Structure formats: structure tokens, C-alpha cells
Amino acid sequence: MSFGPPPSPFTQSRLTASEGRKKRTSLLVGVLLALVAALCSAGWLLWGPGTDGTASANRPTSAPRAPDAIRETVETPPKTPEGGTAAEHAVELKEGETVPAPGLWATDKIVAKGIADVVKGIRIKDSEEAWRIDFPGLICAVTRHVSVDGRTAVAFSGERLEKGGRTEEAALAAPCDRVAVFDIDTGRKLWDKKLPGPSGSAMSVNVTMTRGAVVAATGQASVAYDMTSGERLWADTATSDCTDTGFAGGRGLIALVECGDSADPVFRVEKIAPRTGKSLWTYEVARGIKGVHLASSSPPVIAVAAGDVRSTTLITLSDLGRQRGTIRLEGDRYEHGCDETFSGRVEMCTGVVVGRRQLFMATKPRDFSPEASRGQTPNEVVAFDLATGNTVRKFDARPGRPMFPLRMSGGKVIAYREAASSPSAAVSLDPESGKETILLLFGQADVPEMTALEPPDVVYERGRIFLSATGVARAEDDGPRLPLMRGFESSG
């Protein structure tokens, strides 16, 4: 009987509960058998039958979702794809000022945007500021995850800003020592907690969410809180040669653990029970790997850097932590987003979209001109089989309009198609049929380019697409107000 491909030269896998791992201290022990049964039941309701193992490929699931589960909206095409402005927001800066702007989240009522030490809620339709949350210090870590009932989390500095302290340099220097959860629709901060252990920097703190829990790693400690009450579920502050570097949330929770000398680290990936912190299995990464990022918690997918700090391979794992397939990243061929410079984030790989059976990445955009390209497509969105790592389908972008996957929508993929001189688009890609369906066409004025030095945040939610800068700088010839975010929706 076969259990998948043999271990690659990069890794070898073994099942273990917590062998070789520093002990996590559980502060809340659930009834494990009931929890496992509930999760198994919820997993069936979530995925059900569909083209990618999901509840439906073209309509929202009718199965009820827990309010504190992580949102996975299934989109439907609008009445007309012609788009108009849904919301927009600009920021005022002094000449020469540069500020970070992390975080972009949307519901059917509000689009929320972080900038420096503030999160603002912008009302969809009239672009008026509906609410704002002022933090004492700079926002230093965010998660893209949103709960079914519209909650998300940020980490921030509890140290008050000094005058002129809203810069990127200040963000790196300030301690990143607190985490908060807020309601996107109302702007209500639900709870705010001091992270345990020594204060980490913005380079080392990671925050994520999974069903019912908010989980953070500081570089010195790791901790989980109940999403609703803010009660601490477990924490690991023990001094050890091994450290929880970060976590990937969403449908599940996996941890990246780093051991030994930072010049020659040894990594392992563990599946974690969110309510107890218990390790359910361990996947050991071979020695010599320079870095690991977590692309997906369920199905588990990791990116490893062999011989350099740049990711060279994606490795897919089974639900039991065994290796399934490998995908070679082939130098600069793919726009995977796993190698953000000068960042300590672990849950990234923003260009990798993982479904139940397949994984999607875009190839790097090519320069396009009718004379030189001779019909060459500007790039492709490539689908890979998770079980084997083999390519199973390609979606060609159109001339001059490179395309990038954003997220799953049932069994289909929502992608952003960028165009400089004609309308950009949000499209739906069907891996079963190979069909591309236009969801939204929208203008390009003041929209940050996906291929810029710092690509924008892009969120597609409830038939709307939002694009936002992740940092803003005012040059000498700029006016005081700089565009920060724009959103588009169907005009039908």
C-alpha cells in the first residue's frame, strides 16, 4: 500500500505528539473527544461536495458556520461586470513623510484600513469615515483572516508615539507588545492584551486567527487567546533552544518551530490544537534549509529555501503531516510572495492560493509589446495538484493584462487582472472547465500597481474589489492628500 512519494532531499516526515518540543502550558483544557467530533463534522459541512472538494463551486454554502470560524466567502457573478467606485480614502502627509499602512479588511458594509497607529472604517457607498480606532503606538503586525461575524486582529506597540514617530524606522524600533481584536462593521475594540514574555520587535511578531482563537508569536514566546473573550488559552514562555517563530491560521493552525543556532537553524512544522496548544504531528525539515514560510495551514503547504534565503520549493503535506508533493519555484519564474525582504512574517506567500486539491500561482509578468511579444501571453495562473506537485492546468492572461490569484471561492479561484491602459478586472477561474468568467471591470486611476516595488493589498469580498497601498510616501511634487485605498463594485 502506498502512502505517497518518498521523502525529498529537503525533508523527512514523522508523526509525533510533542517529542523534542518545549512544553506548552495549557490554561484551558477542552473535552478533546467532543472537540474532535465537532471539528470533523464542521469540516464536512464546510467542504461538502464540489469541484474542489468545497460546498459549492458557484453559490454560497447553506451549511451554518460558527460566528468565530474563519470566513471563506463563496462569490457569485454580479448582474453586470461594469464597475463603479464603492469606496475610496486618501491620507494627508507632510512633505517628505513616509508612513506604514498595514492591513486591509472588508465586509458588506465597511472597508477597514490601517495606517501608522490608526485603523479607520470607511463606509461603502459614500466613503465617509464610520469609525476609527487609535492605538497608543504603531500597528506592527496584522492578519488577513476575518471571522464569519466580521472580527479580525492586529498587534501594536503599547509605547506611545513621540512627535514625528509615525515613520517606517519608528515602526521597526518600537516594541510590538500588544494584540487586539475588533469588529470591522462597528469599529468596537473587543479586547486588548499584553503579549507575554520580553517585548518583540515588529520584525519578529506574527499574529493569526483560526476558529475561536487568536494566536501570536513574539520571537521569545507564543500565546493563544479565545477570540470572543480574550481569555488566554495557553502560552509558551519557557527558555529553550527551540522557538515558535510563527503560525499559519485559517482553516487550521500550524506552527513553524526554529531550533539551534540562527546561523545554522533546524526547522520543524507542527500541527497545533488551537484550544490547548498541543502538538498533533510534527514534520521535520532537513538540515541545511535556510528559511521556511507557511503558505497554508489546511491543506498544509510550506515554502523552503535551500542554499539561499529565497524560497526554492513548495512542499505539500497530508492531514497527518506526511509529505505529498513538491513544486520547484524555478528561480524567478513564479510570483509566490514568500520572500518579503526585511520581514519576520511567517504566514505569507501572498501569491500562493491553496484549495482543497489544487494550488495556484502566477508566473512573473513579462514585458508586452505587439511588435516584440509575437502573441506571447504576459503571464499565466498555474494550477498544481497537491498530491503530486504536477501542473494540471494553466490560465493564460490577456495581452498587456497580467493576472494574479487572490483567494479561493468555493472550488473556483478569484484573480485580479491588471491593465495599465484598459479596464482592470476581477475574474473567476474554474479549474475543472478551464473557463474564465469576468466578475468586475474597473478603472485604473490612482490604483497601486500589483507589480510595483511594494505590491498593494488586494481584497475581493461580496462582489467588490479593494486595492490599498501598504505604505505611503509624499514626495516634493505631491499634494498633501495621497490616495491610500480604492474599492470598486458592480454598477448594476
From TrEMBL:
- Look up keyword tRNA processing and say if it applies: no
Question: What InterPro entries has UniProt attached to this entry?
Answer: PQQ_rpt_dom (IPR002372), Quinoprotein_ADH-like_sf (IPR011047), WD40/YVTN_repeat-like_dom_sf (IPR015943)
Q: Tell me which residues make up the Pyrrolo-quinoline quinone repeat domain.
A: 126-394
Q: Where is this region: Disordered?
A: 53-87
Q: What is this protein called?
A: PQQ-binding-like beta-propeller repeat protein
Q: Does the keyword Coiled coil apply?
A: no
Q: Where are the transmembrane segments?
A: 27-47
One Pfam family from the record: PQQ_2
Q: Which superkingdom does the taxonomy of this entry point to?
A: Bacteria
For this UniProt record, give its keywords in alphabetical order, as a comma-separated list: Membrane, Transmembrane, Transmembrane helix
